[in-house]
Each structure stands twice: as C-alpha cells, then as structure tokens.
Amino acid sequence: MTVTPLTIAIDGPAASGKGTLARRLADYYHLPYLDTGLTYRAVAHMLVTRGWPLDDEAHAIEAARLVDLSGLDRELLSAHEVADAASRVAVIPEVRRILVEKQRGFAAGPAGAVLDGRDIGTVVLPAADAKLYITASAEVRAARRLRDIESRGGRADLAEILADIRRRDERDTGRADSPLKPAADAHLLDTSEMSIEAAFQAAKAIVEDAVAARDKARHTG
Ligand code: C5P
What we know:
Layout (H helix, E strand, L loop, with lengths): L5 E6 L6 H12 L3 E3 L1 H13 L7 H10 L7 H4 L2 H10 L3 H15 L4 E6 L2 H5 L5 E6 L2 H14 L6 H17 L12 E4 L5 H25 L1
Helix pairs in contact: 1-10, 2-3, 2-5, 3-6, 5-9, 8-9
The structure holds cytidine-5'-monophosphate (C5P).
Cytidine-5'-monophosphate binds next to helix 2, helix 5 and helix 9.
C-alpha cells in the first residue's frame, strides 16, 4: 500500500534499460510516465529539420520553448542520429532550464509520476520519493540496443553502436551543467547480468523500501 503522490526518479546512461523499468514501474503503480530524453530529442529534431546548426543556442532555446510534452512522437524521435544530436543540445544550460521546468510541471500532478533521464534525481526531482540509478556495462548496453534494432527489422553494426554509446556517455558525464551521475541518495542497480523481469523485481523492491521509509518518517515526524 503506497500513499500518493508518489514520485520516482530513474537515471542512467543510454540503453541501460531504464526506460523499460520506468514504464513497468509506472504501469504497476498507475502513475503517469515521462521519458525526459524525448524532450531533448524533440529540440534536436526541430533544429535538424529546420536546417539550424546544433550549436545555435538562440534557435535551440526557441525550440525548447516550443516543446509540447503531450505531442512527443517516440517513433519519429527514436533514430540514433537524433540521440546523438540530443546530447549536443543538452549541454546548453538555458535549454536545460526550460525543459526541466516542463518536466517538473509534469511530475507535479496529483498522482505523482515516474520520470527517467540523466538528471532526474540530482536536478529535476531532488525530493523524489524513490531514486534509482540504472547501469549496465557499455558492451551489454550495445548488445541490447542491437537486438532491439534487429527485432524491429533494422540492421546495425555492433562496433558502431558501442562507439556511439561511449561517445554519448562521455558527453553526458562530462558536461558542466547537470552531468549524468547518481544522486547521493540514489539506489544503484546494475542490470548487466539481469533479465528484464529480475531487474523489475529489484527496482520494485527498492521503491517499496523507499516508500516505506518515507511513510514511516511521516508518521513519526
Ligand atoms: O535518454 P535518451 O537516450 O533519449 O536521451 C538522449 C540525450 O538527451 C542523452 O544522451 C542526454 O544527452 C540528453 N538527456 C539529458 N537529460 C535528461 C535526458 C536526456 O541531458 N534528463
């Protein structure tokens, strides 16, 4: 039994499985879910389709203002060129500020929410009820991404995916504003050797413990 609102922050590097876990937790707890990566992807996609350079800050800021959380098209934004472009616009502090504000608005609904990204536990929702940091080795993440592409009828090269993942990890952990890192109070979950089901059970146990601790603190406080 959990008391609402319930906010769950999930962070981790590209292809760590955090999206799958976030979606399953949102289903399980009947919470709205936001993949914040899509907001950065939407900005990048807008720049690319309008022929604006990715380091054009003024246009990136304008694009961030235009992002509508209810109109994010996962199919359209899923290409890995968009992901790479997203990690480039994500270094612009004003773009982050605008998107973070929208993301916080989403989480402020009456039920709470599950958000996943790179800075949810550290910046977007520092007071989240439960924080998870999902990792897996770069090799495992690349193999998962390849399987995912192939299962949808696509083709890709494992070495290229691995290089792409490493490049994005470096950009995401190395940027000055809101770098990817676990919040001090985040629970680490390494899914390298776990099935999706085992990872979900582990994530659920972490959330249950965090919520029990929260509710206990409320009752005694
Ligand atoms: O999660 P996803 O792969 O869709 O994210 C694309 C890029 O957007 C990431 O590589 C990262 O640079 C950026 N991002 C971010 N902060 C978030 C979510 C995504 O900087 N909360």
